[in-house]
Amino acid sequence: MTGGLRANIVSSRGGRSALRTSPIPPRVAGNQGSKQSLHPENQLQCLISSRVAGGFGLSHHFTHACMRTTPGQIMHAWGTVKAQWPEARSGNSGKGQESTALVPAIMTFGDSSVDVGNNNYLPTLFKANYPPYGRDFTTHRPTGRFSNGKLATDFTAETLGFTSFAPAYLSPEASGKNLLIGANFASAAAGFDEKAALAKHAIPLSKQLQYFREYKGKLGRVAGANKSASIIKDSIYLLGAGTADFLQNYYVNPRLNKVYTADQYGLSLVGSFTRFVKDLYGLGARKLGVTSLPPLGCLPAAITLFGFHKPGCVSGINADVQKFNKRIDSASKALQKQLPGLKIVIFDIYKPLYDIVNSTSNYGFKEARRGCCKTGRVGATVFLCNPTTLAAGTCSNATEYVFWDGVHPSEAANQAIADALIFQGIGLIG
């Protein structure tokens, strides 16, 4: 989304997150003495908010908010709706998912940042199917998500009006009518580097696309040709990848980092990204949201491996990340010009997470350099929770921690990130 809106998360007394927005473009003035109309960007904010609220019978909260001229008032109304969603959902139990969601389905590709359990079915070290993962999820059990609870994409799905999450494609749940709301093809340790993904027994992006082709066939048998075609065309597609390529491959692999600069390696990844988007477009995708890389130098694993006991983030790694993010942004703009009807939005997660890490207390957190669960110091153990230290090595209150393990945010941080990005994706709706 273009313009000046930038949402930051501030912690409220109840431990919930509220949104605070920085200045946006000037509003359009109406006739003297009449109500002022909102700048088009604010009107879009109200559109998505009121449509979501309307799905739960809460649109009255926006009757006046959408006539106001300050983004803070709009966001207050948005927070009111979010706070009442659980009650609204329970009161609308007779409504089907299609009556509330703003898009028919969500298709997700990428790495551990968006994997909801595909790696549970693979012979790989990179799994999250054991405690303490999932401790604070709705089921209080490990699901394969690399967090204590929900991922940022889970919160995004809820914001769009979904009352359940698209299943991991390799799971038994990915069948029948469950396919109508989409599927998740992501795999921890996957990325734009196909060889690296295969070496870690993850599902490379090319294979994720093969699974999507297979999914389309299954969807057609469940929904029929016309409805399935509509679902494929109007769905939102999410891609989150690149972290594993750098943090679990390039920086720890002398055969790469002694031969190529990070920028050279990044160029090859951008080429893979471009090919992936073109292939996905060829399969019918038209609305694609791509997450930027987070500030990798601020992740606990990076600090452990490359921080050398210095305060703050690893600045060299973050500089590499910012260069890569600019290249992905440029490639996305070029693809949007080349491919008719394609909408691409880059979700900038770098800034909100960087701000949280470097102003921890301002966002209601206490710890940003260590994960809530105890990790190891070598190999894959640097990145993941250590299952052998469950009792002694896991914090009691994950809401105080920005990170859950060595790489992945806690549920509280995931919610903060999702809230900060909510309006960036408005262009993908409708």
Automatic annotation (TrEMBL):
<comment type="similarity">
    <text>Belongs to the 'GDSL' lipolytic enzyme family.</text>
</comment>
<dbReference type="Pfam" id="PF00657">
    <property type="entry name" value="Lipase_GDSL"/>
</dbReference>
<dbReference type="InterPro" id="IPR035669">
    <property type="entry name" value="SGNH_plant_lipase-like"/>
</dbReference>
<dbReference type="InterPro" id="IPR036514">
    <property type="entry name" value="SGNH_hydro_sf"/>
</dbReference>
<protein>
    <recommendedName>
        <fullName>GDSL esterase/lipase APG</fullName>
    </recommendedName>
</protein>
<dbReference type="GO" id="GO:0048046">
    <property type="term" value="C:apoplast"/>
</dbReference>
<feature type="region of interest" description="Disordered">
    <location>
        <begin position="1"/>
        <end position="37"/>
    </location>
</feature>
<dbReference type="InterPro" id="IPR050592">
    <property type="entry name" value="GDSL_lipolytic_enzyme"/>
</dbReference>
<dbReference type="GO" id="GO:0016788">
    <property type="term" value="F:hydrolase activity, acting on ester bonds"/>
</dbReference>
<dbReference type="InterPro" id="IPR001087">
    <property type="entry name" value="GDSL"/>
</dbReference>
